[in-house]
């Protein structure tokens, strides 16, 4: 409906404008309007999303050392916590690890309320970016000899996340959650997708996908270890119910 109103207005302006103003103003406006509605169309957003998800390797169902769930805010939290719980129930891994400021604690509490024992849960609540997700997760899990992980996040975010976690020495199996199309409009999805393309370009230009050496992985920087301790990054767990 918005598109019809927009083009109706442009058509009226076309009819009442002189040839000069049609060429200088109306034609550029029509071109911009067509481009805008094409870019924000579901077909174009689906195409952009496909470009981010097509390179991902399939999840073949193998067991891993841990399920790692990345936080992305309350709107996306419920889907990934539910998926991680189902994966744990399917015995894909013995451990679930939550990563992300403002998200890790609610996720861990959700799993404990679902009956996952405290011994199977861990997390960090200091990371605010995808790179920090990998930095703090690696600093905690590599010391526990976790090498293979099932990575849970939304489809647009998965490709960048996979590349970053691979650079920290993890053998990553991607398991993308589904976006709730009733909750997210096409424009919301477009923002998510465009942000991921820009984020991937930024990470590539700033060498954030570089492979870390075994020495770096076994010996996290003192700054990271200090933050984990002083910022209380590790998520506290409630005692398991008897």
Give an account of the 3D structure.
With 242 residues, the protein is of the alpha/beta class. It has a domain at 62-230: Rossmann fold (3-Layer(aba) Sandwich). 55% of the residues lie in helices and 11% in strands. It has ten helices and five strands, in the order αααβαβαβαβαβααα. The chain has helices at 2-16, 19-39, 42-53, 74-89, 104-113, 130-141, 155-167, 186-205, 214-218, 222-230, and strands at 66-70, 95-99, 121-124, 148-153, 171-176. A five-stranded parallel beta sheet has the order 3-2-1-4-5, with helices on both faces. α3 runs parallel beside α8 and α6 (130-141) crosses α7. The N and C termini lie far apart (58 Å).
Question: Topology of this protein?
Answer:
Blueprint: H1 2-16, H2 19-39, H3 42-53, E1 66-70, H4 74-89, E2 95-99, H5 104-113, E3 121-124, H6 130-141, E4 148-153, H7 155-167, E5 171-176, H8 186-205, H9 214-218, H10 222-230
Parallel strand pairs: 1-2, 1-4, 2-3, 4-5
Helix percent reads: 40-55%
Distance between the termini: 58 Å
Q: Profile the largest sheet.
A: 5 strands, parallel
Global morphology: elongated
Instruction: Work out the oligomeric state of the chains in this entry.
Output: single chain
- Reading the helices and strands in chain order gives HHHEHEHEHEHEHHH
Unreliable segments of 5+ consecutive residues: none
Annotated CATH architecture of the domain at 62-230: 3-Layer(aba) Sandwich
Q: Quick one: CATH class of the domain at 62-230?
A: Alpha Beta
Query: How many runs of DSSP E, i.e. beta strands?
Result: 5
């Amino acid at each position: 409906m918005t598109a019809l109103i927009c083009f109706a207005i442009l058509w009226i302006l076309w009819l009442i404008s002189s040839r000069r103003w049609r060429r200088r103003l109306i034609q550029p406006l029509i071109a911009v309007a067509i481009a805008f509605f094409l870019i924000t169309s579901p077909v174009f957003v689906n195409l952009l999303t496909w470009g981010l998800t097509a390179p991902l390797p399939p999840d073949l169902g193998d067991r891993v050392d841990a399920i790692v769930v990345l936080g992305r805010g309350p709107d996306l939290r419920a889907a990934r916590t539910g998926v991680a719980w189902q994966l744990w129930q399917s015995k894909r891994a013995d451990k679930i690890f939550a990563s992300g400021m403002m998200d890790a604690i609610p996720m861990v509490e959700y799993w404990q309320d679902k009956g996952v024992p405290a011994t199977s849960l861990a997390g960090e609540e200091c990371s605010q970016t995808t790179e920090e997700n990998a930095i703090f997760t690696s600093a905690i899990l590599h010391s526990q000899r976790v090498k293979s992980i099932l990575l849970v996040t939304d489809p647009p975010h998965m490709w960048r996340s996979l590349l970053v976690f691979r650079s920290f020495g993890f053998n990553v199996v991607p398991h993308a959650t589904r976006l709730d199309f009733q909750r997210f409009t096409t424009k919301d999805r477009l923002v998510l997708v465009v942000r991921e393309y820009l984020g991937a370009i930024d990470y590539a230009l700033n060498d954030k996908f570089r492979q870390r050496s075994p020495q770096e992985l076994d010996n996290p920087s003192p700054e990271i270890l200090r933050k984990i301790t002083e910022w209380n990054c590790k998520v506290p767990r409630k005692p398991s119910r008897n």
